[in-house]
Amino acid sequence: MSTGKSEVVRGVAGFDGEVTILQARPWRFEGYVNYGRSHVTSRNPELNEQNFLNAINAVSSGGQITCAPGAVNSPIATVSATCAPINPFGGQVSQAAKDYITTIATPENINNQYDGVVSIAGPLLKLPGGDLAFALGYEHRAENSRFKPGAFYQGATTDLYPGDFDQNGDPIDLFYGRSVPIQPVYGAYHTNEIFGELNADLISPSNAVPFVHQLSIQTAGRYIWNSIAGNDPTYTVQGRYAPLPDIAFRGAYTRAVRAPSITEAFNPTSSAFGFATDVCDQSLRNQGPAPATRAANCAAAGVPANFTSLSNQRSFFTYVFGNPKLQNEKSDNFTVGAVVTPRFLKGFSATIDYIDIKLQNAISQYSNSQVVAACYDAATFPANQFCSLVTRDFSAAPASSGYAQLKQVGSSYFNSAQLRYKGILAEVEYRTRSDFLGAGSHIGFSVNYQYLDTLSTAATAGSAPTNTGNSVGYSRHKGIATVRYDIGGFFGQVQVNYIGSARVDPDTAYNFYSVPKVGAFTYVNLSLRYEVNKQFSINADVDNLFNAKAPFPYPASGGTATYFQGIIGTYLRFGAAVHF
C-alpha cells in the first residue's frame, strides 16, 4: 500500500499605514513578505524486475520448490533479501515472495516560494465623476522546485548500453522496475517587478450629463525582469461608457506575458519508443495548411513522392526534454462588448463580447506528430528548431519499405510563432418570482453561447497557420441553456448542452476522410437538491438524462473530453451533506 506525507508551511508578515502629503487626502501604504514551502514524500511498493525473475525461475529440488541456485539479487534493496519462489498460476504468492520482489520507492518533491511587495495608493485629484486614483509598487518573487525520484525510479548509470540520460547527459541503462527511468528535476528563477495603476471616474450618474450616465477609464502597467525568460512589460487600458442606466459599452486592450514554468524549462531528458504521423507519407504530403510547402520540403529532404510511412504502425526511438531557451509568451487581447440591464424588466441581463487574442511565442507542448509537421510545414525548412529533432533512416535501399522512415524524434515545450483566437461570447439571464408555481418560489433561465471564428497556430514565423477552429473539440457553435426553479429548501435545475458539428481536420480536403464531419451533439443534465434543515441536505444529479449517444467519429484528440457525456452514457450521483 502506498503512503504519502505532505507538509505545507506558510508564513506572512506585513505592515500598513497612511501618509498625508501637501494637505491632500491620505495615501495608504502597505508591504508584506510571504514565504511558502511544500514538502511531499511518499513510499510506494514497486515490483523489482530482477528479483521477480529470480523468484519465477524456480526449480524442484528434493520435492521442494526453490529459487534457482546462484540467483543474484537486484543491486537495490527489497523488503526481504531472501529469495522465495513464485508460482505465477492461481494467484498464490506467499508473503515471503512478495517481500522479496518488492522495493519501496521513495520519491520526494520540494517547492519553495518567496514573495515580497511594497505599494502606495490613493487619490491624486478630484474629477467630476469621482477621483483620479493611483497605485505604485514593487514586487520581488523567487521560486525553486526540486523533485527527487529516489534510487528505484531513477535507475543507475553504467554506460554499457544506450538508454535514457541523466542530468549530465550520461546514459542510464540499469532499470530496476518495468518503466523508463524518472529523472530528478531542479529549477529556480526570480523576478523583480514594478507596477502602477490609474483609475479615472470621469462622469458618474450624479453629474446628470445627458446621454452620459457613466464614463470611466482604468489603466495598469507592470515591468518584469525575469532571471530566465528576460524582460517584458505588461499593461492594460479599459473603459466603460453607459449612455443610459439600461445599457453600457465596455472595451479593453491588454498586453500580457507568461514566463515558462520550472517544468517547462528544466524537465530532464528521457527516452522511450513511440509513434508519429509522418506528413511526408504520400497520402498527406499534399494536405495541411500549406500543401505546396509541405510537398516541396519533403522532396528536399529526400523522401520519395510515393513514400509510405510506417511510423503509425511500428515504434521508433523518441525522447522528451525541457527547453531552457524558452522565452516569455506574450498576448495582445482586444475585447469590446455591451451589457444590457433594462429597468423595466427587473432580474434580466444580457451581455455580448467580441474577443480577439493574438498570442505570440506561445509556450506549447508538442507531440511527436506535431514536431514532424512543424518541421515540414515551415517556410524556413530545414533551418528551424523542429527539423533538428527529426531524423530519418536513409541506410536502407531506396526501393525498400524501410527507406526514409522516421528513425528518431525529439519533443519538448516550444515557443510557437503565434496562436490566434477570435470569437463571440454572449449570455442572457433572467430570474423572477413565480408565485403561480408556489408562494415564494423563483424561476430563472440563462443561455450561454460561443461562436468560434478563428483558432489557429503558426509553429514558425512565416508559416501558414494550422487551423483547429471548427475541428473536433473546438466546434464553431457551442451553447448551454439552463432552467432553474426553487421554493423553500428545494432547488431543481435542467441544463441543455449543445455542441455544434465539426470537421475531423479543417486543413484537409473535405473528401480526404471517409467521414469528414462530426455531427452536432445535444445532451441534458438534471440536478436536484433539498435542504431538510440548516444542518442536513440531500442531492441527486443525472448527467446525460436521455442517454444521448456521441456522434461518430469522436477521436481521442479533443473528442474524448468533448463527448465524454455521450461516451459514458447516463450517469447518476446521489449525495447527502451534514453541517455541524
Description:
This protein is mostly beta strands. The chain has helices at 49-56, 95-101, 150-154, 262-266, 291-300, 368-376, 556-562, 564-568; strands spanning 3-19, 27-47, 58-61, 64-67, 102-105, 108-127, 130-148, 164-165, 171-172, 185-203, 214-226, 230-244, 247-258, 270-274, 316-320, 329-340, 348-365, 390-393, 405-411, 413-433, 442-458, 466-467, 477-487, 490-499, 502-503, 517-518, 521-531, 536-543, 571-578. Strand 6 (108-127) and strand 7 form a beta hairpin. The longest helix has 10 residues, at 291-300. The radius of gyration is 31 Å and the shape is globular.
Brief sketch in words of this structure:
The protein is mainly β. It has 8 helices and 29 strands.
Strands, count: 29
Tell me the fraction of residues in β-strands, as a range.
over 45%
Determine the N-to-C terminus distance: 33 Å
Q: What's the helix count?
A: 8
| Overall SS class | mainly beta
Largest sheet: 19 strands, antiparallel
Global outline: globular
Q: Output the radius of gyration.
A: 31 Å
What oligomeric assembly is this protein in? single chain
Mean pLDDT: 90
> What share of residues is helical?
under 10%
What are the low-pLDDT stretches, counting only 5+ consecutive residues below 50? 159-168
Relevant terms:
mainly beta; 580 residues; 29 strands; 51% strand; 19-stranded antiparallel sheet
Q: How is the secondary structure organized here?
A:
Elements: E1 3-19, E2 27-47, H1 49-56, E3 58-61, E4 64-67, H2 95-101, E5 102-105, E6 108-127, E7 130-148, H3 150-154, E8 164-165, E9 171-172, E10 185-203, E11 214-226, E12 230-244, E13 247-258, H4 262-266, E14 270-274, H5 291-300, E15 316-320, E16 329-340, E17 348-365, H6 368-376, E18 390-393, E19 405-411, E20 413-433, E21 442-458, E22 466-467, E23 477-487, E24 490-499, E25 502-503, E26 517-518, E27 521-531, E28 536-543, H7 556-562, H8 564-568, E29 571-578
Parallel strand pairs: 15-19
Antiparallel strand pairs: 1-2, 2-5, 2-6, 3-4, 6-7, 7-10, 8-9, 10-11, 11-12, 12-13, 13-16, 14-15, 16-17, 17-20, 18-19, 20-21, 21-22, 21-23, 23-24, 24-27, 25-26, 27-28, 28-29
